[in-house]
């Protein structure tokens, strides 16, 4: 039996728009395909069934390969909270849990993003190996989300994303 360890990534972002606008960007396929694990120019699939128990799927084409991300919605509370699973089946069957919480501020809204990252331990790992792997998954995820959240901010505040990936 394989051991699974977890690490938690938490990030906060401010947006100069109402929470509803950011909430929509997480659930509207036309908006998702511009920033969520993909860019409009490389997106092949952006679809979802935005209800509890419904699923979502993104397919991005990069470097001659298709990358597929899928999940299921566990909680949808407009415009305050979305909880969903996330996995990329070509890399792992493990599912992460992502929680997005939005709250109104005087300038717009604040988003708190939390990802519970699951890491499969290799057979001969020491505690140091595990710590290193958890750190790499955490930092790699944080780097990826940083880039996505820049796109998300531009999308919700200006209506488009100007850079090309």
From TrEMBL:
Classification via Pfam families: AHSA1 (PF08327)
Gene3D superfamilies: 3.30.530.20
CDD domains: SRPBCC_CalC_Aha1-like
Regions that span the bilayer: none
Domain Activator of Hsp90 ATPase homologue 1/2-like C-terminal: 17-157
Family classification: Belongs to the AHA1 family.
This protein's name: Uncharacterized protein YndB with AHSA1/START domain
Lineage of producing organism: Bacteria, Bacillati, Bacillota, Bacilli, Bacillales
């Amino acid at each position: 039996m394989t051991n699974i360890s977890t690490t938690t990534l938490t990030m906060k972002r401010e947006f100069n728009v109402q929470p509803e606008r950011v909430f929509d960007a997480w659930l509207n396929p036309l908006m998702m395909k511009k920033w969520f694990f993909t860019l409009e120019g490389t997106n092949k699939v952006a679809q979802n069934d935005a209800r509890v128990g419904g699923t979502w799927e993104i397919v991005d084409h990069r470097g001659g390969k298709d990358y597929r991300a899928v999940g299921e919605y566990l909680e949808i509370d407009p415009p305050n909270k979305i909880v969903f699973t996330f996995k990329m089946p070509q890399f792992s069957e493990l599912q992460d849990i992502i929680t997005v919480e939005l709250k109104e501020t005087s300038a717009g809204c604040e988003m708190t993003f939390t990802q519970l990252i699951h890491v499969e331990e290799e057979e001969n790992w020491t505690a140091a190996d595990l710590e290193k792997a958890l750190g790499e998954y955490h930092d790699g995820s944080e780097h990826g989300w940083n880039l996505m959240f820049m796109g998300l901010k531009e999308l919700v505040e200006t209506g488009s994303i100007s850079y090309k990936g």
